[in-house]
Amino acid sequence: MNEITYIRSENIALRTMAGEHYLIVLDVGESKMFNLNGMGLWFWEKLESSQTKAQLLSAMLDEYDVGQDAATAEIDRFIAYLLERNLITNSE
Question: Which positions ≥6 away from 51 have C-beta within 8 Å?
Answer without folding.
Answer: 5, 6, 7
